[in-house]
C-alpha cells in the first residue's frame, strides 16, 4: 500500500484543493480533510480488505466507482465523496448485506453498539427490498471466552485479518467461495479445538454481533440475590481507564473510586483491587528473577506470565520455552486465592460461601480461571466468574446507578491497597517497569532514583533495553501483540538450538497490542491514539500514588508477615504459583 517515495501531491476533494502525502489512501486523505466516508470492513488497526464496498467514491475521468479504503491518492485526482448516486449505491450495498443478516437486534449483545445498525440508521433504511436469506450455522460457545455466531457474520474479514496478520494465530479463515463463502475456525471445527488462544481480538474488531465475549453478567446478578453467599469483587488496572468510554468520557479517564462505590451500591460485601495482586506478583516474580539471575536457580531469561492468552499460545506453539516461564500466577488469580484463604480466615467467613468476581479487560481471563487444578489452590475455584469491561458497562446501565454522580470511595483493607507499580501493569511495558523498580532494590538494597523507566514504554512492537543495577547489566525485552511475541520467541529458540548465549535476562509479554489497555474485552473501536490515552491514564495514576514501588505496599508486607512468610515460601508456591503443560495446537 505504500510507495517508495513519500511526496506531496495536489488533489481535489469535493471541489476543494488539498496537498496530501502520496502514501495516503483516499479514505485517509478525506479523514484529514474532516470528511467522513462510511466504512464497514475497514478498521484503523488493520490493512484494507475492500470487502464491503460501502466506501466507494468517484474519481473524475474514471468510469468506475473506486473503493476509498484501498486506493492511494494520485497527483491531480478530483474526488467526489458524496452525491446522490453514491448515496444510492451505498444504501443498496447495505440493503444487500442486511438481506443476509438476521433481524435479531433486540436480543443481540451489540444492540446499540453495532456498526451495521448505525449505518442502517444513518442511511434511513426502514425496509429491505430483497428476500431475507440468512446462512445457517450453529453458535459456537465452546471456548467459554468468546462466542461465534456464524449467522450474524457479514464477511467483512476483520476477525481473519487480526487473527492471522496481527496475532498470527490463524484460528479463523475464509471457507468456501461465492455466495457460500463464510468465516469459520480453521478446519471448520469448534473454536475450542482450533489454535484459538481466547485473546478476544476477533471480538474487539468485529463490527457486528458475530463474535462477542461469553457474557456472564446475568450470573453475577443472580449471585447477588443469594443471601447465603458473600460476594467480593476486584477490578483490573486497565478497566479503570477505559470504562468511562461507555458513558461518554474520553479514553484514559480514571474512575477507580466510582467503580468501588458502584459495586458497594449493588451489594458486594468487599471491594478488592487487582492492583494489589500486581504488587504481589512483582514480589513473587521479582524474587524468582533474583533466584535465577543472582543465585543461578533456574533458566534465563525469565518470561512474565500475567497474560492467559500468551500462556495458551506458549503452551501450544512454544512448549520448548516453558522452562523460561515464571510460575507466578496472574494478579487476579492471586487475589482470588487469597480472598478464600487469608481474607476468609481474618474475617471468619466460610470460604465456600465467598463468590469472587473479577472485572477484566480480557476475554482469556474467562478461560484462565479454570485452566488447571492450580486455579483451585484455595480448595475452591479461586475466581468464580470473570467479566469484561464491556459487560461491566452494561451492568452499570442496567443497575440504574448513575456512575458519574457517585463520590469516590476506597477499596477494602487486606487486599485493596496498591502502589503506582501495580496500576501500570495494564500497559505494555508496565509489568517490566514495575519489576525493575523492585528488582533494583532486591539486587542492590537501594531504591531506584528515577522510577520512570521510559525505555520500556510506548507502542513499539518489541522494546529492548539494558538496565544498570549498580554495575550489573540486566538485558530486558518487552513484546506485545502475538505477532511481535513470535519474533522474540524465535530469537530464544534459535539460541537454544545453536548454543548461542541468550540475548535477554527478563522478558515481558502481552498478547494484545498495547497490553491490557487494549484487551479483547475493552470498549470497541480501539486505535493507537486510544491505546496511548488509556496508557496515559494509568501512568498519571502511578504518578499520583504516594508509594510507587511494589515492595513498599504495606498490605503486601502485612500479608507476608501474617500469612505467607516470605516470597517463594511453600505457602506462596501453593497459593500463588502454577505450572504449564504442552498442549496440541489442534484438539482432536
How are the SSEs ordered, and which strands pair?
Elements lengths: L7 E6 L2 E6 L4 H7 L23 E4 L6 E2 L10 E3 L3 H16 L15 H8 L16 E2 L5 E4 L8 H9 L5 E4 L6 E4 L15 H5 L5 E3 L3 H8 L5 E6 L20 H10 L4 E4 H20 L8 E2 L4 H10 L13 H17 L6 E7 L3 H5 L16 E4 H11 L20 H4 L6 H15 L17 E8 L2 E9 L1 H17 L7 E5 L17 H17 L9 H11 L5 H7 L12
Parallel strand pairs: 1-5, 11-12, 11-14, 13-18, 14-15, 17-18
Antiparallel strand pairs: 1-2, 3-4, 3-5, 6-7, 7-10, 8-9, 16-17
Describe the 3D structure.
The longest helix is centred in the middle third of the chain and has 20 residues, at 274-293. The protein has 18 helices and 18 strands. The protein is globular and about 75 Å long. It has 3 domains: 8-82, Ubiquitin-like (UB roll); 95-213, Alpha-Beta Plaits (2-Layer Sandwich); 218-576, Rossmann fold, CATH 3.40.50.1780. It is an alpha/beta fold. α8 crosses α10 and α8 (274-293) crosses α14. The relative contact order is 0.12. The protein has helices at residues 26-32, 84-99, 115-122, 158-166, 201-205, 217-224, 256-265, 274-293, 308-317, 331-347, 364-368, 389-399, 420-423, 430-444, 482-498, 528-544, 554-564, 570-576, and strands at residues 8-13, 16-21, 56-59, 66-67, 78-80, 139-140, 146-149, 172-175, 182-185, 211-213, 230-235, 270-273, 302-303, 354-360, 385-388, 462-469, 472-480, 506-510. Strands 2-1-5-3-4 form a 5-stranded mixed β-sheet, with helices on both faces. The protein starts with 7 loop residues before the first strand and ends in a 12-residue tail after the last helix.
Amino acid at each position: 500500500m505504500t510507495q517508495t517515495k513519500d511526496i506531496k501531491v495536489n488533489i481535489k476533494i469535493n471541489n476543494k484543493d488539498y496537498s496530501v502525502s502520496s502514501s495516503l489512501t483516499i479514505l485517509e486523505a478525506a479523514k484529514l480533510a474532516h470528511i467522513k466516508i462510511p466504512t464497514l470492513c475497514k478498521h484503523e488497526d488493520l490493512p484494507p480488505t475492500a470487502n464491503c464496498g460501502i466506501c466507494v467514491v468517484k474519481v473524475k475521468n474514471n468510469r468506475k466507482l473506486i473503493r476509498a479504503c484501498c486506493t492511494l491518492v494520485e497527483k491531480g485526482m478530483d474526488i467526489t465523496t458524496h452525491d446522490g448516486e453514491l448515496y444510492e449505491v451505498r444504501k443498496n450495498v447495505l440493503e444487500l448485506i442486511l438481506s443476509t443478516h438476521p433481524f435479531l437486534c433486540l436480543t443481540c449483545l451489540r444492540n446499540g453498539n453495532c456498526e451495521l445498525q448505525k449505518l442502517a440508521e444513518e442511511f434511513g433504511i426502514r425496509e429491505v427490498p430483497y428476500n431475507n436469506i440468512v446462512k445457517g450455522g450453529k453458535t459456537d460457545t465452546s471456548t467459554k471466552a468468546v462466542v461465534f455466531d456464524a449467522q450474524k457474520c457479514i464477511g467483512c474479514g476483520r476477525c481473519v485479518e487480526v487473527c492471522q496478520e496481527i496475532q498470527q494465530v490463524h484460528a479463523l479463515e475464509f471457507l468456501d467461495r461465492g455466495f457460500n463463502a463464510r468465516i469459520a475456525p480453521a478446519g471448520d471445527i469448534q473454536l475450542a479445538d482450533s489454535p484459538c488462544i481466547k485473546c478476544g481480538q476477533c471480538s474487539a474488531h468485529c463490527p457486528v454481533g458475530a463474535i462477542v465475549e461469553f457474557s456472564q453478567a446475568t450470573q453475577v446478578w443472580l449471585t447477588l440475590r443469594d443471601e447465603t453467599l458473600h460476594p467480593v469483587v476486584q477490578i483490573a488496572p486497565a478497566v479503570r481507564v477505559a470504562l468511562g468510554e461507555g458513558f461518554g468520557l474520553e479514553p484514559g479517564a480514571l474512575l477507580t473510586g466510582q467503580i468501588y462505590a458502584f459495586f458497594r451500591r449493588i451489594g458486594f460485601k468487599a471491594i478488592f483491587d487487582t492492583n494489589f495482586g500486581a504488587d504481589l506478583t512483582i514480589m513473587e516474580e521479582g524474587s524468582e528473577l533474583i533466584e535465577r539471575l543472582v543465585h543461578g536457580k533456574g533458566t534465563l531469561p525469565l518470561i512474565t506470565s500475567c497474560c492467559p492468552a500468551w500462556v495458551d499460545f506458549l503452551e501450544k506453539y512454544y512448549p520448548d520455552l516453558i522452562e523460561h516461564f515464571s510460575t507466578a500466577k496472574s494478579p487476579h488469580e492471586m487475589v482470588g486465592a487469597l480472598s478464600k484463604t487469608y481474607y476468609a480466615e481474618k474475617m471468619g467467613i466460610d470460604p465456600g460461601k465467598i463468590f469472587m468476581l473479577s472485572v477484566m479487560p480480557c476475554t482469556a481471563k474467562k478461560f484462565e480461571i479454570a485452566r488447571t487444578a492450580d486455579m483451585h489452590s484455595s480448595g475452591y475455584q479461586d475466581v468464580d466468574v470473570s467479566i469484561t469491561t464491556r459487560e461491566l458497562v452494561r451492568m452499570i446501565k442496567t443497575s440504574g446507578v448513575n456512575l458519574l454522580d457517585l463520590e469516590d470511595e476506597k477499596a477494602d483493607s487486606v487486599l485493596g491497597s496498591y502502589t503506582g507499580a501495580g496500576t501500570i501493569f495494564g500497559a505494555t511495558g508496565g509489568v517490566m517497569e514495575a519489576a525493575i523498580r523492585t528488582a533494583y532494590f532486591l539486587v542492590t538494597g537501594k531504591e531506584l532514583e528515577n522510577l520512570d523507566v521510559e525505555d520500556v514504554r510506548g507502542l513499539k512492537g518489541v522494546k529492548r533495553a539494558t538496565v544498570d543495577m549498580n554495575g550489573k547489566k540486566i538485558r530486558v525485552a518487552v513484546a506485545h501483540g502475538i505477532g511481535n511475541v513470535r519474533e522474540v520467541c524465535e530469537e530464544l529458540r534459535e539460541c537454544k538450538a545453536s548454543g548461542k548465549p541468550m540475548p535477554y535476562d527478563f522478558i515481558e509479554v502481552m498478547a494484545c497490542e498495547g497490553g491490557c489497555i487494549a484487551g479483547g474485552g475493552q470498549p470497541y473501536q480501539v486505535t493507537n491514539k486510544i491505546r496511548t490515552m488509556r496508557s496515559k491514564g494509568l501512568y498519571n495514576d502511578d504518578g499520583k500514588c504516594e508509594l510507587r514501588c511494589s515492595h513498599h505496599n504495606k498490605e503486601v508486607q502485612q500479608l507476608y508477615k501474617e500469612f505467607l512468610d516470605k516470597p517463594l515460601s511453600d505457602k506462596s508456591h501453593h497459593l500463588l504459583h502454577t505450572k504449564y503443560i504442552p498442549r496440541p495446537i489442534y484438539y482432536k
